[in-house]
């Protein structure tokens, strides 16, 4: 079965009515960029750089960051995009750093991700320098995780500008005009998408956290797994709203949570208007297969029906039925 999907590698991800859907891969380690190419992804839609920190006794240096990014870019080639997400440490992702962070009762609501970076400017700036430098080698885009307010995004942009000035002063080569994006993975960010759109070139919806925070259900807690569902109508309304803002403000919207790697949800996401999905490389061939059997008008109709339903269970049932019909 896997081999049959691999035959799809060199075929385009395009719907029956000719609409291209950009498929990108999610990676955690530099060598996985090759897996993206092997499975037919058009680039890396999410590079989770915190894995440079995990299981290390010391924080990575600027050179270590740079070398990892360079390896990814060299693997992909200069024409394929890589979205480098800045450190998303804390909560479920720990490292050498955790010992220096005070213990928290609610780590998922605490000092994680961009919040930590905005307090640990030494770490953050080291990474930003490496990203700006690596960007001279290929199509690099930078993305900030866990943004929940407009101020945070503005702070990130200010810091990025400060780092550019430093590099300029030091006469270190870097690329100044790389695209900037934000994850939309906290409900406040989805609600304020129109305001955040003024600050960035693209959005990437992180459904893993968006589902968790929308339904107040820990993504790793089996006891509340019944609540944790990407097809929950509350989550779908937020996704729909973000896609609509993207259309209106003419900025790209991607989905990079596990939801986009589920064949079940692909027709719904396309029907809601998404034209870009980023998933674990292993899932890319299956997703492509669904896309190649889909018509966008049909997908739009499905999304419309799904959005009228009242529970995740009904929506999942409907989508399963539709997927069987399509494949
Ligand atoms: C997400 O939250 O959907 C996401 C892609 O980020 P991570 O899984 O790394 O938290
Ligand atoms: Mg996340």
From TrEMBL:
Residues 8-294 form the PEP-utilising enzyme C-terminal domain. One of its GO terms (molecular function) is kinase activity. Mg(2+) binds at residues 185, 209. Keywords: Cytoplasm, Kinase, Magnesium, Metal-binding, Phosphotransferase system, Pyruvate, Sugar transport, Transferase, Transport. Its main location: cytoplasm. One of its GO terms (biological process) is phosphoenolpyruvate-dependent sugar phosphotransferase system. It is found in: Cytoplasm. It catalyses: L-histidyl-[protein] + phosphoenolpyruvate = N(pros)-phospho-L-histidyl-[protein] + pyruvate. Its EC number is 2.7.3.9. Phosphoenolpyruvate binds at residues 48, 85, 208-209, 219. It is an enzyme of class 2 (transferase). The active site is at 256 (proton donor). GO terms for cellular component: cytoplasm. Its cofactor is Mg(2+). It comes from the Bacteria. The keyword Kinase applies. The keyword rRNA processing does not apply. Belongs to the PEP-utilizing enzyme family. General (non sugar-specific) component of the phosphoenolpyruvate-dependent sugar phosphotransferase system (sugar PTS). This major carbohydrate active-transport system catalyzes the phosphorylation of incoming sugar substrates concomitantly with their translocation across the cell membrane. Enzyme I transfers the phosphoryl group from phosphoenolpyruvate (PEP) to the phosphoryl carrier protein (HPr). This is Phosphoenolpyruvate-protein phosphotransferase. The gene is ptsP.
């Amino acid at each position: 079965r896997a081999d049959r999907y691999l035959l799809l590698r060199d075929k385009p991800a395009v719907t029956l009515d000719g609409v291209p859907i950009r498929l990108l891969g999610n990676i955690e380690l530099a060598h996985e960029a090759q897996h993206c190419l092997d499975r037919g992804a058009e680039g890396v839609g999410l590079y989770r750089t915190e894995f440079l920190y995990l299981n290390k006794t010391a924080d990575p240096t600027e050179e270590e960051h740079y070398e990892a990014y360079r390896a990814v870019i060299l693997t992909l080639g200069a024409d394929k995009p890589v979205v480098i997400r800045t450190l998303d440490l804390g909560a479920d992702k720990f490292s050498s750093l955790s010992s220096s962070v005070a213990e928290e009762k609610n780590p998922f609501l605490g000092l994680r991700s961009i919040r930590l970076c905005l307090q640990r400017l030494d770490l953050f700036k080291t990474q930003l320098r490496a990203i700006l430098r690596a960007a001279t080698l290929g199509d690099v885009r930078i993305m900030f995780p866990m943004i929940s307010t407009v101020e945070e995004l503005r702070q990130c942009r200010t810091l990025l500008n400060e780092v550019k000035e430093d590099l300029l002063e030091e006469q270190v080569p870097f690329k100044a005009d790389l695209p900037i994006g934000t994850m939309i993975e906290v409900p406040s960010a989805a609600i304020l998408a129109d305001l955040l759109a003024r600050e960035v070139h693209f959005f990437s919806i992180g459904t893993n956290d968006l589902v968790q925070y929308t339904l107040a259900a820990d993504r790793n807690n089996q006891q509340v797994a019944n609540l944790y569902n990407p097809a929950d109508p509350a989550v779908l309304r937020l996704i729909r709203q973000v896609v609509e803002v993207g259309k209106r403000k003419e900025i790209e919207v991607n989905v990079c949570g596990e939801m986009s790697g589920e064949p079940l949800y692909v027709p719904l996401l396309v029907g809601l208007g998404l034209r870009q999905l980023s998933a674990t490389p292993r899932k890319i061939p299956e997703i492509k297969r669904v896309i190649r059997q889909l018509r966008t008008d049909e997908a739009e109709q499905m999304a419309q029906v799904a959005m009228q339903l009242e529970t995740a269970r009904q929506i999942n049932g409907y989508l399963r039925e539709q997927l069987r019909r399509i494949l």
